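Hey, can you fold this one?
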Amino acid sequence: MFDTDLVFAAACAAYRTNKFIYVKVSGYDAAPKTLNKVLMKNFVMDPDTLTPDDHAKGAAMRTHFKGLIFKTLSGQVLGDIDKKALTLASGDAVTDRDFGIIAYLPEAYARAVKRQSVDERLYQAQGGFIGKIGDKVVRTVEVLRGVFSIKWNCNFITAITETDEVVFFSYKNGIEAGTKISISGTVKSHRENQTQLNRVKIMVG
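Sure. Predicted structure:
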């Protein structure tokens, strides 16, 4: 058995060593890297090589996954990875059989933090709605996230304007989060604190 805090810190150290990439199988890209779970085990066996930042990130990651208990209490159903992560984070010790999934958790945690940051920006947006239904509008926006829909064969984009207005629209191509673009479109609806646009075009120049 191994101390949970130590193993979580080691997982963060392995993630850092592989330049914040989770390597599950050998032969990654053109330059093979050591598997995260192998690196993690090395750090566990030689804990003096862990940095204070590794310990801090490991503790934060453990707190995050322990906090998933509140989702279950509110009736939300956790996925298999989150269920296992909650169990492991809540215990004082883990076995080496758990090293594989714990090695993956820093990547899962990074994604969760990024998603939470986006959700907070959307929730806190105070710009209000754009125009009236049917209005043609032009805005410069920062893309916050995009989700591809297999059913509709398009990407659903959520973005925010320079004046804190949230917009939502479909687009044939994916747009990377963080990209700033100028768009034109027609106001289709207002819902919650978002303005849905239709017939959106990206303006060039």
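The longest strand covers residues 136-149. Let me know if you want another pass with a different chain boundary.
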